[in-house]
Every structure is written in structure tokens, then in C-alpha cells.
Amino acid sequence: MSRQIKIFDTTLRDGEQTPGVNLNIHEKLEIARQLVRLGVDVIEAGFAIASPGDFEAVKAVAENIKGATIASLCRAVEKDIDRAWEAVKGAERPRIHTFIATSDIHMKYKLKMSEEEVLERAVAMVKYAKNYCEDIEFSAEDASRTRTDFLYRVVEAVIKAGATVVNIPDTVGYATPLEFGRLIKGIRENVSNIDKVDISVHCHNDLGLAVANTLAAMENGATQLECTVNGLGERAGNAAVEEIIMGINTRKDFYGISNKIDTTQIYRTSKLVSSLTGVNVQPNKAIVGANAFAHESGIHQHGVLSEKSTYEIMTPESIGLSTNRMVLGKLSGRHAFEERLKEMGYTSLANDEIQKAFEKFKKLADKKKVVLDRDIEALIEEKVSEVPEVFELDSFQINSGNKTIATATVSLKKNDSVITEAATGDGPVDAAFNAMERAVGVSLELEDYGLRAVTEGKDALGEVTVRVSKDEKIFVGRGVSTDIIEASVKAYLNAINRAISELGEDTAAVSGN
Q1: Do both 334 and 192 map to the same domain?
Q2: Can you give the three-state secondary structure of 359-407, one letter per residue?
Q3: pLDDT in tens, 316-352
């Protein structure tokens, strides 16, 4: 019988630490629900003491998500542990995840603590956390740069104190697969009570080795693998869950390892996280990139047409992609549209959500001869990323040219009133953004603007992602349309509504409201 490993997903905690990513509670719940469909064992919902918003998000996930262990990260400090427990205590299966650094460089320069002080703190805080719940994970931060004799002592001591999971992180992505595998093997051979706990690993991708290090650790006895969707995370990110799982499943002959992941949910999960975080997946990304199952070379095409396994070591269907090219257009009915959604993995949409998506589809079909799968994905993901619409787009008009000053007039609806403002700018998009800011009475700093074609052709949907800042907080807005100006307006309005939703309506000072 094959050995089974557990998947610990930290997209909502370490993944959200990706620069520029800021998820609200609604979005975190959407991702958490999808992670349960994916089949992860543990969801690390956040760092409860980091901010009131993070606490509320962890609490919401703990109270609403069933089918997985819900964890909160906390430093080896009593107040952190108290806050973590307050956040996760409503979970079906709560876990407190506490950590302290154990490497010489961290103890000397960051903690300013001696070896014995760190050991004493680790043990004391695991015991303290154990008073709250049974499931306690302890992480030795920067374990891959920790002297092994000291690491063995710490691991053995925290297990005696009550830890149920011991995490060995490659915090700065410094390790190589061979040495990281040896480290896990050394822990198994030199820590007398290691058989009482799960050995977890958390690898960063600074040298591009996160997945390789994770798999090497698994080969040497790790039983829990920590990762994120699309490899999101600090700096160069974390080990990507989709790469780990498909590596294990595709090479069952080599690893002989099993897991609970439903691989047909991988693509859907990747697209959802990409949409809500505003971090696009590179086309040549393994498993979930747009080119992962694309073949341009004539030799490759000939081989795949003769026998797919000549150049495909896994099937697109195995990750939730469909090779069905059923054409949808303006004459298609709701039944055909709904069937297509099911084939694409959207099985949990409510009737009203399907109806709204269908109405958007029909409007798009009037503009495009053929609506492709990626167009439908963009429409569905636009639904997922919605926030309470304090302001709605009524209309806009642009006047722009190479010898005229760009001018935009934008009308926004709030409740039963329509606010119209005009502004100029350095181009049609800038003018439209300026007009919207005047209409809502709020000024935002545009940090980033991204535009990509969802599909090919002159009638392709344009997807615009903007990052704006207000009061030192980042908000991501997204909009799709065959008109890139409209997509830009929708994205900026989405970001404005997010800012107002999080910072409060007094953020917008619209006269007469």
C-alpha cells in the first residue's frame, strides 16, 4: 500500500504576502471553498495577529469552511497564540501554527537570543498553545540554515511538549534537493520521538528549487507538504501545489505516494487565484500555463496527432481542462451554456450566478462571432471578484486623438442618483480615471496597470488589471470587455469600490450623498 502525504495550503497566508496582493474576506472564502474542492488537508487561513482584517478573515474561514483543518500562523509569543486561537476556535478542525527562528544568523541578528533561550521559548509556547487545542504545528524558521545538532534538540523538545506537526522550512530558498533530502533523513534518524508527529516542509523558490526540494523531502520521509496555488508567496514564492501534485501523480511509478487531491480541480483553482490576486500565470508555467498543453512545432503536432503520449506526459483532462471545442455563439441557449460551464469545472455556481453569467455571455456573443472557453472563464471570474458596488457604471464618453487633449465624461450611479463628471488626461484611460475620481470624490495612486487579450483576434476580450493604493493599502481591480477603454473603466471602478468597501464609505466624499 502506498504512503499517503498531506497537503497544507498556505495561499491565504504566505500567498497573500506576495507584493501587491490584498484579498478581502469574500475573496478568501471563495478561495478556501475551492481549496476544499481541490482536496487539501490543511488551509492556513492567515496570520491572525497581523491586523484586524486578517483576524476577521481567519475567523470567517474557520467558521464557514468544513472539510479541512484550518490553521493560523503565530509567533512563539503568548499574545500571538491567544489571537490565533480566538480566530480558529470555531473551526471543525482547528490548528495553531507557531514558529521561532533557529538558525545562528536569525538568533543573533533578528531575535538577539541565545540557543538555550530559543529552545526554552519554543517548548514553553508549544505547551501554552496545547492548552487551547490538540493540533499544534511548530516551525523552526530558517531550518535549512540551522546547525543540525541544535535543530534535532529543538524538534525533539517540542514533540515532548505536545507538538503534533513539526515543520522544517527552507525559509529563504537556500537548500538544494540533495542536502534538503538529507536533512529530513537526518531528522528521522536522530530525533528519537519523530515517529509521533508529521514531518512537514515549507520550501521557498528563491533559486527555483522549491518543488524539487519539497519532493526530495517527501522521498526522505516528509509526510506533510506546504505549498501555494500558482507558487505565490514572499519574494520568488513557494512550492506550487499543482506542480507537486502532478509530479507525484504522473510519476507514481517512481514515488509510490498517494494523496487526497482531486486533480480535475487544479486548473479551476489556478484561474480563481490568479483572477482574485491579479497575478497572472506566465504562459510557460508548468501544469497551468496557457502553453502547458500547446504544441506549435510541426514535429510535435504530428506526434501528438498520432499518439498524445509522444509529447504529453499527462492529459489536459487530468487537471480540469477540456479538449471539447464546442463552439458557443449568439444563437446558443442557456442549456448549452450551462453544460459548457459544467464541463469547465464550474459546478458550484448558483442559478442566479449562472443567469448573470449567461446574460454577459449573450452580450459578448453579439460582439464576437465565436465565444471561446477563455472568454467564458473571464466572465465567470469577473463575477467571483465582485465587491459591494457603492458606485455602478452608467455610461462614459471619450474624446481623444493624436492632436487633441484627451477628455472623458463618466456617469456613475449611486443608489437612485447619477453623478457625472468630466476630466482631461494624458490619454483616454488617464482621462477616464481622473473623471471617476472626481465623481466619487476620492484620489487613488495608480501603482500598476496591466492589459492582456483573453483570446486571439481583433474581437478578443481585453482583460485589464489595476493596482491602486490608498492610505498605504493596495487594492486590485479587474474588468473585461471587447473595448479596452471600457475594460479599463470597469477595472478602476472595481478598485474604487474595493477601497470604499474596506476603508468605509466616508473614503468617498461625494457632494449631495
Answers
A1: no
A2: HHHHHHHHHCCCECHHHHHHHHHHHHCCCCCCCEEEEEEEEEECCEEEE
A3: 889 988 653 445 667 777 877 887 787 777 777 888 8
Please name the residue that has the C-alpha cell 493596495.
Answer: 474
Contact (CB, 8 A) for 8 and 42: yes
216-228 burial: b if 16+ Cβ within 10 Å, else e: bbbbbbbbbbbbb
Residue 194 φ/ψ, nearest 5 degrees: -65, -25
CB atoms within 10 A of CB 438: 17
Q: What is the CA radius of gyration of the chain?
A: 25
**356 and 431 part of one domain:** no
Instruction: Look up the domain containing 342 and give its range.
Output: 324-384
Instruction: Tell me the C-alpha distance between 412 and 421, whole Å.
Output: 9
**In the block, which residue shows the cell 484561474?**
271
Structural domain contains residue 194: yes
Give CA torsion, residues 269, 275, 277, 278, to 10 deg.
140
Q: Is residue 286 part of a domain?
A: no
Q: Distance between CA atoms of 410 and 433, rounded to whole angstroms? A: 9
Report pLDDT for 91. Answer: 98
Query: What SS3 state is found at 242?
Result: helix
**How many domains does the chain divide into?**
3
The count of C-alpha atoms lying within 13 angstroms of the C-alpha of 501, restricted to the half-sphere facing its C-beta, is 23
